[in-house]
Structure formats: C-alpha cells, structure tokens
Amino acid sequence: MAERTSAPAREQWTGQYGFILAAIGSAVGLGNIWRFPGVAYDNGGGAFLIPYLVALLTAGIPILLLDYSLGHRFRGSAPTVFRRLGRKYEPLGWFQVAISFVIATYYTVIIVWAIRYIGFSVDLAWGEDTSGFFFNEFLRYSGAGLSTDFVGGIFWPMLVLWVVTLLILALGVASGIERANKIFMPLLVILFAIMVVRALFLEGATDGLTAFFTPNWEALRDANVWIAAYSQIFFSLSIAFGIMLTYSSYLRRRSNVAPTGFVVAFANSSFELLAGIGVFATLGFMAAQQGIAIDDLENLTGVMLSFATFPQIVSMMPGGPIFGILFFTSLTLAGFTSLISILQVVSAAFQEKFGLSRVQASLYIGGFAAVISLGLYSSTSGLAILDTVDAYTNEVGVVLSAILTCVIVTVGARKLPELRAHLNTVSTGHIGRWWSVLVGLVVPLALLVMLVTSLVTLVEEPYEGYPVSFLLVAGWGLVGLMVVAAIVYTLIPWRRPVDDFTPDPIPALEEVGR
Amino acid sequence: MTPLAIVFMIIAMLVIWGGLVVAITFLARHPLAPEDDDGGPAARGPSPSTR
Asked: What CATH number does domain A16-491 carry, 1.20.1740, 1.10.10, 1.10.3470, 1.10.472?
C-alpha cells in the first residue's frame, strides 16, 4: 500500500461574500451570454419564462442545494465526498472530475478566441465576411478529423492563458480563486451593463426586445420547449459535475449555506435576463440595418452568434469597436471565472487522493490538461472536436452524472434526510420536504427524459452531420474513456486518509429530518 | 415595443431580478447568530480533514 501522508488543514474562503462571488463567477459563463438569449427566443419568447422558472425552482435550485450540502457536509472534492457516502460510489466522483477535466480543455480555447476578438474589434479586422474570417482566416478550419497543423495565433495566447490559470489555482482558494473573482466579477457586471445600455439606444433595439419578449403560448405545449428550459437551467448553473460541491467544501463549517444558494441561482438567472435584453436589442439593430425581420436572422446562439453575427453588427455600428471590446471582454471574463472553478474540481480531487500540494496539482495535472488542450484545440481541426466533445460531455456526461447523484443520494446511500437536516442546521431559513421530493423523484425523472431524448437524437442522426467514425472517437469514445477513467482512478489507493471521517453531529436530525 | 412584449419584459424583470433582491435581502436579514461563529454545534466537532 502506498505511503499515506496526513492532510493539511482544509483551505477556506475568507467569508460569505468571497464564496458568493466565486460561485456566481462559476455559474455565470459563456452559456449565459451566448446560449440563453437564443434558446429563450426559439422556445416561446416571453412564454419561455414559465418553463424556465419552473425548471429553475424544481431542478436548478434543488440540485444546487444538493451539491452544496454534499460538499459542505462531507468536506471534500467529488471523489472524497462520494466515497464518504459509500466506498462503491467513489467512481461517480471521478466521473465528475473527468467531465470537468474535459470541459476545461476546450473552455480555454473559446476564451482565447474571445481574447483575440477583443483585439480584432479595434480595427474591425474581420472585414465584410465575418463568418469566412472566423473559419478560414482565424481558425483555418480543416473539418472533422485530427489535424497536427497548429494555428500560432491560437496556440501562443492559449499557452499564456493556461499558465495564468494554473498560477491562480496554485495560489489557492482564498488568494487565487477568490481574489480573481473579486476583481473580475464586478468588472464583468460593469462592462456588460454598459454594453447592454448602449444596445438599448440603438435603432431597432425595441423591435429586438419585442421579438424576444412576445409570448408564443403554443410553444408551451411542445415537450421540447420544456426540455430546452431544463437544459438551459441545468447547464447554465454548472451543477452536478463537481463544481458547486467542491466550492462549498471550502466554506466554514458554520456557514449560511441554503440562502446563499438562492442568491447564486437568482444571480445567474438575472445575468441571463440581462444578456437576453442586450443580445436582442443588438440583434434588433442588425435586423433594422438589413431591413429584415428578426425572424429572418440566422446564427443566434453559441459560437456563431459570438464570432460571426456579433462582429457583423459591430462593423455596422457607430462606435462599433468600443461595443466589440465590451462584448468580447465580457465573454472573456465570464468564461475565465468559470474555467478556474472547473479546474479546481480536478485539482482538489488529485490533491486529496494523491497527497499533492496545490502547486504540484497545478503543475502536473494542470500541465497535463494544458498539453491535451493545446494539442487538440489549437489545431485546424479544433472546432469540430470542440463541438462534438461539448455536446457529448454535456448532454450525456453531465446529465448522467446528475441522475446518478440523485439516485445514489436517495436510494443508494439514503442520505437525503441527513443532507436536508444538515442544510437546516447550518442555515437560517428552512428547507422543507419539497426539496427531498424534487431531488429524489422529480429531478431524476426530468433528467432521464432529457437523457433519453438526447441519446435517441445522437444515435438516429450523426451529430452535426460529422462522419460516424469521427463521432465514435470524439463523442462515444470520449464518454467511454471518462467511465474507464472513473473506474481506474477509484482503484488507485488513497495517499491521504479519507475514510476516518465523521460528519458533524446534527442535534436536530430527529425533528428536521423527519 | 408592443404592450404585450412590455408586459412580459416587466414580469420577467420583476420575477428574476426581484427574486435576486429578495434572496439577497433574506440573506442579509437572516445572518447566522454571531455566537455560533466559533462555538456552534456544527463548529465544535473535530476537524477530520486535519486528523
């Protein structure tokens, strides 16, 4: 058996404010800015508010609180927490670590694109054909496959970004992560708010908002709209793959956990609403300039919205460069604060299982992630791999992880009453039995519907029309690899004591747990 | 903007931004009891991660 070392004292946030900012920084990411507006518009406009709120209250907040209670009660990274629920559950922890590892590798390249586009905004370097510029000149996109042709304009900034990110992780929870969020989050809110206000004064902005908010009640009868609402809430809050669990494990033992969760969840949605207003006011301007209806606009979400449509709008706009700088800086900051939270999941897990220091974890594990990230995503085939890996990791990996978490907590380890009692013991306010019903029954069922729908779609038609052989490797192969990694890392012996752990007593378990 | 869209915009703002204000207000008005900071039942237990 490997020699065991004793664990150092657990790192802590400096206080509640630092934790809240970091948790909001994690939740508010690229999806808030580039995904929510288009998804809401496509799925009923103003009427989308209803499934969205239902999803927030029945799935988003309950799972967020589940993550918080797991991390805070069992005080560890994902593998530590699930092992403490029962030895046989440790693989789920490593599965979550694998998901975070994979997401971190491609999240960096998107942030690098955003950083490069801050520069391109200054002189509108993308010219007339913004889509052509993005694919051909900037990415030098070669299609689905594995290219060894690297793009210098992406590789070098990406290397710098990795060094900076790992440096922040090495500095630790309070001096690195918390401090970064205390600088970047207020900055993000200010820059983004300025951008939104500017957008509201553009010609055609109100038409954009009319399109965004006009309810289409028919949409509510479409099951896919409800699935879209649950997906949006779910992926936007960054729940069920270790992040919120890891972050909450650095809270002091006596922390006001539950009310904090509501603040984080509503802050995340508040930013999404702000993004919806900003993006659609801007799209209204574009439609007005082109003399077409909002309906006829294309590329309203994701990579295309940010790197093709927005540059086009920036070029049309008086004072466009400033608007472009604001937009891409916001994208960079939102992405970066999420990236460090994703990597902390990985770093914390390796620190605890392998007895590594923060610096060692950043250097070895972070360095390994950086090599894979640079190898796959700074090459000319990066976009297709990113697109596929993102879809499979989220739609299959994260959803599966969430279902397993609910099932293990509810029927496997039977810890739901204990976790609710824990939340109620450490927090002001009271989490009622509704929470157990949602986590134990409603959420896993809703997620199962989402998972089956995704699986059927992924099996029936090749994702984005990519070659099947490519999808077998970059999609299904990847999910398989994550499962294998989860098992292999579980089998390796712990270098630090993990099992001699007794959760804090809950004096009121008899009453509150009932 | 059409009146219908304005109504929905206001509802969305009230519910989501209002929800944030309510959540922050609740947290601010219901802090943990100060004497529990160091000596509450949850804080008194041994620290397993340091054992």
From this structure: 1.20.1740
